Amino acid sequence: MTATTPIALTIAGSDSSGGAGVQADIKAMSANGVFAASVITAITAQSTTSVTAVHEVPADMVAAQMLAVMSDLDVGAIKLGMLFSEKIINAVATGLSAYAGPIVVDPVMIAKSGDTLLQDTAVDAMAHLILPLATLLTPNLPEAARLLGEAQARTVEEAVGQGMRLLHRGPRAVLMKGGHGLSDTCTDILIDAGGVVTILSAPRVHTRNTHGTGCTYAAAIAAQLAKGLVLPSAVKTAHRYLQEAIKAADRLKIGAGHGPVHHFHGQW
pTM score, two decimals? Predict the structure, then answer.
């Protein structure tokens, strides 16, 4: 028998502009060499400038999508993105209760445009039900602060401290993303289960076309995990991929606001 095709599953919201959410996840997973399956949790009317409407997919339909995919496909890794509501979080947590593979959790709360993608009433459910399922939690600095109920980290040292505190909430590793930092160097911080800190740094690319960076990063990590890489290698490989996607973003001319990164920079 031949080896099976690696499969990654994204459970997230749809972005009609194609730069973030499920659409970005499928592009990033495909570019990283895996077959991408999807479960849609919400439908957003979204452009590069704003989110004008959100339609929540009924929780039972989210559960049905998960069952259909996971009962048939050999899912090697799962990425969680926009979960939106407490009902959907409950459905997803229940559906993942028997899953033994790696789960990358991108705690999507706010769109690049500033619009809310996680209801206030769902933050506690995210913290108590989803974080303990995470093989890797990938918050940006505002998301980490909101999950902890603290002010946003301003230094690498403060980000490490918040990452450590998030680690105590249940995830087996935390990747603190430094995209919202102010220095000319973008610093991501990976903290593993033993508290070992790995710094991943890259020169900050000065572009407004960063729509979907968080989705893309987490999806690329999930893809590499589905291919069998260990977590540190998966994060480093995805980090390099994302940096190149950001560098190539200005080759695309998409929309009037925050355009997408170039997911297929290696192909065209």
Answer: 0.96
